[in-house]
């Protein structure tokens, strides 16, 4: 592979710290496509600046550019034949749900449910594909009588973050946890006292560090398959777990509200 050959050709001229980066990449290869800059830095105990310096030294514009090259060369679609791609999709979805379930921290989940119940106002943030999941969470909560406002536009996110207080809760959904606009909004919301629940893949991500509670997902994707079904399935599974947990903990009220909303929709359809 081209990126491996490139690393090997530069290897003698690398510093000791840069060689640690090179060794890790040569060992993990395509898995790098699924890791954040912060995650790699933590794994090999080097600074993020060292990794960026390394990828620039070997000819890339930056870390994202390097990850994109790896994704192009190791893109899993190449390994999937036309005859077995349907089974492969099913297998990936099943594995993702199992992996996400294994990451559930019951105390974090219970605390998140408690925050939902106490929230005066509830906001859900998500951008891109995560924005679709944010809207689904709003819909699910409404059926149980919990009104939430989902914002998928960064301007509305920052405006709502500017008016929250200590009685409000924000649920932030981001696979990488590194979306700059989202981080900016959550930083402001935290400053204003709002409680934050993060749904993300990475416990060390910036939004996870800003959050009071973190619900981890396991949907992996490369830069080439952004918005993939597998990634959304992981997020939707966690959304379902959160909402079902809320409904069961506050069963009587949730059942009453679900009956009311279902009856209202049914009456509208008959009309």
Question: Could you characterize the architecture of this molecule?
Answer:
It contains 13 helices and 5 strands. By secondary structure, the protein is α/β, with parallel strands linked by helices. Strands 2-1-3-4-5 form a 5-stranded parallel sheet, sandwiched between helices. Helix 10 links the parallel strand 3 and strand 4. About 2% of the residues have low confidence.
Q: Which key features would you list for this structure?
A:
271 residues, alpha/beta, Rossmann fold, 5 strands
| Order of helical and strand elements | HHHHHHHEHEHEHEHEHH
Characterize the largest beta sheet: strand count, sense, and whether it forms a barrel. Answer: 5 strands, parallel
The helix fraction, in percent, is 55-70%
Strand numbers in spatial order across the main sheet? 2-1-3-4-5
Please state the average pLDDT score: 88
Count helical runs: 13
Radius of gyration: 21 Å
Q: Quick one: overall form?
A: globular
Short recap of the structure:
With 271 residues, the protein is α/β, with parallel strands linked by helices. It has helices spanning 2-10, 16-28, 37-44, 48-57, 63-74, 85-102, 106-118, 129-143, 154-163, 180-191, 206-210, 229-249, 251-270, and strands at residues 122-126, 149-151, 169-174, 195-200, 213-216.
């Amino acid at each position: 592979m081209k990126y491996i050959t490139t690393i090997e050709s530069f290897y003698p001229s690398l510093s000791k710290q840069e060689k640690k980066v090179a060794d890790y990449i040569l060992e993990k290869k395509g898995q790098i496509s699924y890791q954040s800059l912060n995650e790699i830095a933590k794994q090999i105990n080097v600074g993020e600046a060292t990794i960026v310096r390394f990828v620039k030294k070997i000819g890339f514009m930056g870390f994202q550019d390097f990850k994109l090259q790896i994704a192009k060369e190791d893109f899993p679609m190449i390994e999937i034949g036309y005859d077995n791609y349907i089974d492969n999709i099913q297998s990936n979805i099943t594995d993702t749900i199992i992996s996400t379930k294994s990451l559930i921290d019951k105390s974090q989940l219970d605390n998140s449910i408690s925050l939902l119940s106490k929230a005066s106002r509830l906001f859900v943030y998500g951008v891109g594909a995560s924005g679709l999941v944010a809207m689904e969470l709003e819909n699910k909560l409404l059926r149980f009588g919990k009104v939430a406002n989902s914002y998928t536009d960064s301007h509305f996110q920052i405006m709502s973050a500017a008016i929250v207080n200590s009685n409000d809760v924000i649920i932030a959904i981001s696979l990488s946890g590194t979306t700059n606009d989202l981080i900016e909004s959550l930083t402001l919301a935290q400053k204003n006292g709002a409680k934050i629940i993060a749904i993300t893949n990475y416990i060390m991500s910036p939004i996870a560090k800003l959050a009071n509670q973190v619900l981890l997902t396991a949907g992996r994707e490369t830069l080439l398959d952004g918005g993939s079904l597998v990634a959304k399935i992981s997020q939707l599974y966690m959304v379902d777990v959160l909402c079902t947990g809320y409904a069961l903990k506050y069963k009587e009220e949730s059942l009453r509200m679900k009956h009311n909303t279902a009856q209202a929709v049914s009456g509208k359809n008959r009309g």
